Every structure is written in structure tokens, then in C-alpha cells.
């Protein structure tokens, strides 16, 4: 997953969680606020009803002219009175006034309220289950009970507070054993709140739509801003990094600016400049190291070749001496001149091989015979093969694109290591073959072998297991570098006390080789 998507997902999660918490808290706050307002309304209504009841009680009730629908209260001691004109009036005590006013309010859908008690005189004042539990709690000292309930009529806020016996109440309730200050029952108020929840749900939907719209807008804005300010510029910079140094990167096209990406681009351009300078210095140093190692190997070869040169020189001197002593012996002169010519050609061949080995040239690929090049390399190594059996299993008779100098140095360096690993004699086997699109060269000796813990270090510069003066520690390191420059591979298998085998693979394709 790329950085842009990760950033968008992270910001999206943060925004969603933030809005989720805000949405939840806002919804909860709305719920609490509206219910608290409904509870406050219930308390106000409760006080208004109490004041109405008190006014009725202080005036000994209300009297209405009797007519159809206005019947006397059978639970009162004096439910009806007559005036001097013979007209009949019915009495309404506070409980009846409360009940009748509640019926008006209920018909309007405003609220419902009523007086209830655990010991009702009128069955209409019998408490329901919720009111009964609340009245029992009043006996335990609770001042009020408020709760949201739900039934077949919908959700409602229910409020009930105790009714205390006052002096005016004793006219009707003194015979029940009540005294002033006792809890006679409770005034229950019921306020429908379905509309409250509908408004809260509507507000929540509006908040949800706003939140979703904000998330989409913020997400799209961040996506476009990241794509414009960061992702595209980083993509250009990453492309330049990927192609460098194989392609000529136009550093002027890299993003610029005073932000972090711009500074990173400037650092990359500065780094490319330093890297190019370092690479130039490294190339010069590498060539110097290669040449130094070649000269060191050349010195070791020259010391051994001197013996090979002295042998034909001694023979030629003897031939010249004999011809001087017997100038008239033409047959001997013809025979000896042939020997002298052969010796001179051998000396010339050895010297030419030394000159070729010692020259310095950059990698240059030419079509030549790899097998012939290996055979020529052993002219320089012949002095070290006195006690060693050389086996050549060469299977590359054709012409292949290789650099003759680099390949000859690889062969000489590896074979010199093999010769030095067999001081008491042994067998050096060189094989060549073609495998697919690769040239495979094998160099196996029966020498002392390499310790397993040293196998990972033999290609390190200046690493050597030889005594002082017998090696520079650069031969195999230079060999490794030359093989890599030719886009090849080299590896070693060795068993301590049984010998070592180096394997070199080089590409046959000339373009692939030149790319290396």
C-alpha cells in the first residue's frame, strides 16, 4: 500500500472517530437536554396543579349548577347543596378538579396528570404499577420520581411527587387518620415525548449527512493535495533514483521548493554529484589496484619465467660455442641453427606473454578463442607446473566476445592460487564449456583447501592465508571485480585437505557483456 492511501486511511479513521465521538456526544446531549426540559415542564405543571388544588381547597371546593353531565360526587359527605330558590349545586373537591382538568389536557394531547394513592377512596385514583412503586419509594424518603417509559401509547416522561396533607385537606381525610404533613399520595404527571425522539432522530440524520459530506470533502481535498504536493513530486524523485545512473537523469526536472520534498530533491542532486565524483575516484583507484596486483603477479611470474628463459639461453650458448669451434661442420650448424631458432622463438613467446599480461587497457570486447587464451596463459605459469599435473578439458573451440586482458588476468590469478595451494604437487584441472547463454570456466586443484569459516572472506581485499611476501591479498578480490565488470558470476567450493574448485560464468551475449 502506498503512502497516499495509508495517509488517507489514517486521516479518514481520525475524522470518522472524531465525528463519531462528536455525533454520539451531541446526540446524547440533545437527548439529555430535551428530557431535562420535559422534566422541568413536568415540575412546573406539577406546581401549577398543586396551586390549583390549594385554591380549590382553600375555598372549600367549587360548586356548579347541576345539569345533565354535571353529577354529584358520591364519595363526598355533602356532594350537593340547594339555594333558597331551590336550585341544586354539585360540589367539586380538589381531586375531581384535578381529574377533570387532566381530561381536557389529555384531549388536547398536551399531557395527563392525576392524583393517586395507596389507599384510594375513589377507585379511579387507584395507582398503576409504576405509580405504586413510586408511592412506596416516597415512604422511604424519596422526594420525586422521574422516568421515561414506553407503552402502547408511545414514549412518555412520567413524573410523580408526593402530596402532603394540609389543613384544608382534613375536612375530607381526617376520618382516615391523616394529620397535617402526612403523605396522602402523589400527583402523577405524564408528558408524551414521542415528538422529542422524532426531533432528535431528525437532528441526528442531519448531523450524519453533514458528517458524511464533510468526510468526503475533507478526504477528497487531502487526496488531491497529497497527490499534487507530495505523491507526484516523490514519484518524479523516485523515478530519477530508479534510473540513476543507468540513464541520464535530467536533474533540472526534479521538484523544487522550500518544503521537505524540495529539500530532499536538492539533497539527492547534491548526492548524485558527490556520487559521480566518488565513482570517478573509485574507478581510478580500482584501475590502479588492478594494475598493482597485475604487476605483483607479473613479478612473481617473472621470477619463475627467468628459469624458463635461462634453460633455452644455456642451450643456445652451447650451440653457438660448438659452431664456433667447428665452422666447417655444415651439418652441425644447420642442426644447431634450428635449435637456436626454436629457443629464440620460445623466449620471444614468453616475453610477449609477459608484455601482454602487464599492459593496462580498459575493458574491450573482441571475438577470440577462449580455449587458446587459456592455453597461452599457461605459458606464463609453466614454471610452476613442474610437480603438478595439468589437465585441460577445453570445450570452447569457437569465437566468443570477451576481454582478453581481463580474462587472462582471471585465469592467471586463480591458477596461481591453485599452484601455491599444491606445494608438494597435485593436479590442476581446467574445464571450459558452454551452458545456455553462458560460458562456464572451472578451475579445480587438489591442494590444501580452504577453511569453511574463510570461504566468505576470500574475495575481500587484502585477505590472504599465505605467509608474508607470498601474496598481496588482492588477487581474488581483483578477480571478483573483473568478473562482475564483465557481468559474470564467480563462486568457490572447497573442502579442507581435499582441494578447491573455482567456477566462473560469463555472458555470451556481447551487448549484455558490454552493459556490465
Your description of this structure?
It is a single chain. The chain has 516 residues and is of the alpha+beta class. Among the domains are: 56-194, Beta-Lactamase, CATH 3.30.450; 363-516, Heat Shock Protein 90, CATH 3.30.565.10. 53% of the residues lie in helices and 18% in strands. It contains eleven helices and 14 strands. The protein has helices spanning 3-58, 94-107, 129-138, 170-173, 194-243, 260-325, 330-358, 370-381, 404-420, 475-485, 510-515, and strands at residues 62-65, 80-82, 88-92, 112-116, 145-151, 154-164, 183-192, 366-369, 388-394, 399-402, 426-435, 438-445, 489-495, 499-507. The strands form four sheets. Strands 9-11-12-14-13 form a five-stranded mixed β-sheet. A hairpin with a 2-residue loop joins β5 and β6 (154-164). α8 packs across α9. It is rod-shaped and about 195 Å long. Mean pLDDT is 77; it is low at 511-516.
What order do the helices and strands come in, and which of them pair?
Blueprint: H1 3-58, E1 62-65, E2 80-82, E3 88-92, H2 94-107, E4 112-116, H3 129-138, E5 145-151, E6 154-164, H4 170-173, E7 183-192, H5 194-243, H6 260-325, H7 330-358, E8 366-369, H8 370-381, E9 388-394, E10 399-402, H9 404-420, E11 426-435, E12 438-445, H10 475-485, E13 489-495, E14 499-507, H11 510-515
Parallel strand pairs: 9-11
Antiparallel strand pairs: 1-3, 2-3, 4-7, 5-6, 6-7, 8-10, 11-12, 12-14, 13-14
Amino acid at each position: 500500500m502506498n503512502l497516499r492511501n495509508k495517509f488517507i486511511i489514517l486521516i479518514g479513521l481520525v475524522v470518522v472517530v472524531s465525528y463519531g465521538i462528536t455525533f454520539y456526544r451531541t446526540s446524547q446531549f440533545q437527548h439529555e437536554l430535551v428530557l431535562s426540559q420535559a422534566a422541568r415542564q413536568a415540575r412546573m405543571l406539577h406546581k401549577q396543579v398543586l396551586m390549583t388544588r390549594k385554591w380549590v381547597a382553600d375555598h372549600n371546593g367549587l360548586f356548579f349548577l347541576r345539569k345533565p353531565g354535571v353529577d354529584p360526587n358520591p364519595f363526598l359527605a355533602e356532594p350537593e347543596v340547594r339555594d333558597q330558590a331551590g336550585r341544586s349545586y354539585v360540589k367539586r373537591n380538589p381531586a375531581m378538579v384535578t381529574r377533570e382538568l387532566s381530561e381536557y389536557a389529555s384531549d388536547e394531547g398536551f399531557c395527563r396528570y392525576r392524583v393517586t394513592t395507596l389507599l384510594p377512596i375513589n377507585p379511579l385514583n387507584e395507582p398503576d404499577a409504576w405509580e405504586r412503586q413510586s408511592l412506596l419509594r416516597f415512604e422511604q424518603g424519596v422526594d420525586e420520581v422521574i422516568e421515561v417509559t414506553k407503552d402502547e401509547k408511545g414514549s412518555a416522561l412520567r413524573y410523580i411527587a408526593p402530596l402532603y396533607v394540609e389543613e384544608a385537606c382534613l375536612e375530607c381525610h381526617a376520618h382516615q387518620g391523616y394529620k397535617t404533613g402526612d403523605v396522602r399520595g402523589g400527583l402523577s404527571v405524564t408528558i408524551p415525548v414521542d415528538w422529542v425522539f422524532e426531533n432528535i432522530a431528525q437532528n441526528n440524520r442531519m448531523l450524519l449527512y453533514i458528517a458524511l459530506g464533510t468526510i468526503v470533502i475533507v478526504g477528497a481535498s487531502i487526496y488531491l493535495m497529497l497527490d499534487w504536493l507530495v505523491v507526484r513530486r516523490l514519484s518524479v524523485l523516485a523515478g530519477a533514483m530508479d534510473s540513476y545512473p543507468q540513464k541520464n537523469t535530467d536533474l533540472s526536472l526534479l521538484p523544487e521548493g522550500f518544503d521537505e520534498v524540495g529539500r530532499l530533491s536538492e539533497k539527492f542532486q547534491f548526492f548524485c554529484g558527490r556520487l559521480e565524483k566518488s565513482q570517478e575516484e573509485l574507478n581510478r583507484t580500482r584501475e590502479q589496484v588492478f594494475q598493482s596486483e597485475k604487476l605483483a603477479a607479473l613479478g612473481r611470474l617473472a621470477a619463475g619465467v627467468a628459469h624458463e628463459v635461462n634453460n633455452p639461453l644455456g642451450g643456445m650458448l652451447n650451440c653457438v660455442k660448438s659452431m664456433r669451434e667447428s665452422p666447417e661442420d655444415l651439418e652441425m650448424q644447420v642442426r644447431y641453427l634450428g635449435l637456436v631458432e626454436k629457443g629464440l622463438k620460445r623466449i620471444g613467446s614468453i616475453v610477449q606473454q609477459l608484455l601482454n599480461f602487464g599492459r593496462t587497457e580498459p575493458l574491450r570486447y573482441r571475438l577470440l578463442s577462449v580455449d587458446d587464451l587459456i592455453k597461452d596463459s599457461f605459458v606464463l605459469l609453466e614454471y610452476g607446473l613442474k610437480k603438478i599435473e595439468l589437465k585441460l578439458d577445453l570445450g570452447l573451440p569457437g569465437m566468443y566476445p570477451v576481454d582478453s586482458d581481463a580474462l587472462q588476468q582471471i585465469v592467471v590469478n586463480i591458477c596461481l592460487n591453485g599452484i601455491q595451494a599444491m606445494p608438494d604437487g597435485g593436479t590442476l584441472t581446467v574445464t571450459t564449456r558452454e551452458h545456455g547463454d553462458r560460458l562456464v570456466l572451472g578451475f579445480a586443484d587438489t591442494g590444501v583447501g580452504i577453511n569453511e569459516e574463510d570461504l566468505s572472506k576470500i574475495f575481500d581485499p587484502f585477505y590472504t592465508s599465505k605467509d608474508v611476501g607470498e601474496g598481496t591479498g588482492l588477487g581474488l578480490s581483483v578477480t571478483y571485480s573483473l568478473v562482475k565488470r564483465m557481468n559474470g558470476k564467480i563462486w568457490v567450493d572447497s573442502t579442507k585437505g581435499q582441494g578447491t574448485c573455482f567456477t566462473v560464468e560469463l555472458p555470451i551475449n556481447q551487448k549484455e557483456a558490454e552493459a556490465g
